[in-house]
Amino acid sequence: xxxxxxxxxxxxxxxxxxxxxxxxxxxxxxxxxxxxxxxxxxxxxxxxxxxxxxxxxxxxxxxxxxxxxxxxxxxxxxxxxxxxxxxxxxxxxxxxxxxxxxxxxxxxxxxxxxxxxxxxxxxxxxxxxxxxxxxxxxxxxxxxxxxxxxxxxxxxxxxxxxxxxxxxxxxxxxxxxxxxxxxxxxxxxxxxxxxxxxxxxxxxxxxxxxxxxxxxxxxxxxxxxxxxxxxxxxxxxxxxxxxxxxx
Length: 247
Fold this sequence. Notes:
By secondary structure, the protein is an alpha+beta fold. Helix content is 30%, strand content 23%.
């Protein structure tokens, strides 16, 4: 947990200049990667393994104000869950909240959470809209102290030491707004690669694959794979996009 908090402190220290969000984007990606590859969420006898998370962060004092964050009280706390709705329906969503501002009362409040977009719940592939129904009752039954102790380091073995991770844009965010002047701001945040996915090349028991496969693969290949990209695509997906054929 110390390493996770250190990563969050790195994020906290960045002040945006000239609307250049690159440094913040990178730290949010690294933090999301750490969540995916090093941690699981445990709620009683329920284990939630994140496969795809989306970062939501707003820190006005540091000039990074994501207009898509809900800005709820839970999102200003560390290691608690935020349920988007009081009922379990298709609008539902659950975030793991990672703000450390409560640890320093002199620090300006900010909001940091990762939407659990796709997960394995006790090994079962689970979408965003399905997750709250699977964990809400168990989470609500925890004491307040236990609710802040739900994040655990993974037990590493041969099957998870080779996780591949890619970054892409968040899903279904819209720039259109009734407030004039906000569309440009929203578009600048929509374009950030704040969706982090691991093992997106795999199919799960329900024969489901994660979305945005080629975007994730292109991002991964741009920094991690120096070999034959055509062969990599064929090995992992069974096909190769035209742009990589012969490369």
